[in-house]
Amino acid sequence: MNRNRKFSAVFGVLLLVLLCVSVSSAAEKVTVYHAGSLSAPMAKIESLYEAANPGVDVLRESGGSAALARKITDLGGGCDVFLSADYMVIEKLLRPAAADWNVLFASNAIVLMYGPKSKYGEEVSTENWTEVMLRPDVRWGHSEPDADPCGYRSLMVLQLAEKFYGKKGLYAEAMSHKGRAVRQKAIELVAMVESGTMDYAFEYKSVAVQHGLKYVELPVEINLKDPALGDAYAAVSVELAGKEPGKKMTVKGEPIVYGLTIPKGAPDKKGAADLVKFILDPKGGLAVFQEMGQDVVGPRAWGEAGSIPEEIGALLKK
Q: How many other CB atoms are found less than 10 A from the CB of residue 212?
């Protein structure tokens, strides 16, 4: 009798496991590639969306926007929704071959982030940050320009700072500084600053806010935030790896604007469109971005809007 009870119990557990696996495998999977700076808001958006849509499993991969775009084009990455920290990544690396449209939805600013263990943290300010950062015993960093928009934007900030502060040679001095370190993703710098292994890092303001880290608010003339200063930002540029191996492309300074698209090769276009509708909903994803330190732009289409799915186009501002 006891043996029969034990068998029934074991059988019941196995049946429950099989049912769970069956339900999990049957869930609709929507794959999202997104900029590392969107990790915190996208985690909350995923949670909210899955709660409202129990049959959907949102699978996220974060990283440098340019690197993720190349994963789509060069490595055949099966991505349903792509969110870039720079809308021009979509324009230059995905359109027109791998994406039909590009929607602008949020903005940000570059700050100099630091933590509780950062050297000279008690004295750094908007007026002296360049001098503090370049002291011989200070360790600072930025993300890889060829992989992550925050990386090349960091270099642009330094070029603009040279002009704004009238410090000739500042950019060259920064690039040759022994304490400078480069990491593949901007988000990797957060842990280093928190632990004290890095004193300062260029990062998006929203990321510093989300992680409760201190930061130097840089002048609007150099932080790439103000759309009205687009012409001034365009006075600086950075050379990056192009679409084809061995070829370079020049990226000029521009206001920081995020873009999203559904790649042409998206495995689940309907699931992708439904998720994008939630992301662009003022009471959905856009509210999350604002809550986490990012301003909303539009949302509006960049360039031709004719190919945007009708249900998404209905959410855009003219």
A: 8
pLDDT in tens, 268-312: 999 999 999 999 999 999 999 999 988 899 899 987 767 899 999
* Strands (DSSP E) found in 176-235: 180-183, 200-204, 214-216
- Tell me the backbone φ, ψ of residue 268, rounded to 5 degrees: -130, 80
Question: For residue 252, how far is the Cα from the chain centroid?
Answer: 19
Q: Model's pTM, two decimal places?
A: 0.79
Q: Could you give the CA distance from residue 30 to residue 57 in angstroms, rounded to a whole number?
A: 6
- The token duo for 318 is 């003219």
**Is the preceding peptide bond at 263 cis, omega within 30 degrees of 0?**
no
Please state, in angstroms and rounded to a whole number, the distance separating the CA atoms of residues 82 and 32: 6
Give bridge partners of residue 177 from the DSSP assignment: none
The model's confidence at residue 12, banded by pLDDT at 50, 70 and 90, is low
Largest CA distance in the chain: 89
Using CA of residue 217, residue 130, residue 198, residue 85, what is the dihedral sign?
Answer: positive
Residue 174's contacts (CB-CB under 8 Å, 6 or more residues apart) are 133, 134, 158, 180
Q: What is the CA radius of gyration of the chain?
A: 22
**Cα(154)–Cα(149) distance, rounded to whole angstroms?**
8
pLDDT number for residue 27: 81
pLDDT tens digit string along 130-141?
999 999 999 999
Classify residue 89 as exposed, middle or buried by CB count within 10 Å of its CB (0-12, 13-18, 19+): buried
In this structure, the chain runs to a length of 318
pLDDT digits (tens, 9 = 90+) for 149-173: 999 999 999 999 999 999 999 999 9
Identify the residue whose tokens are 């994803």.
285
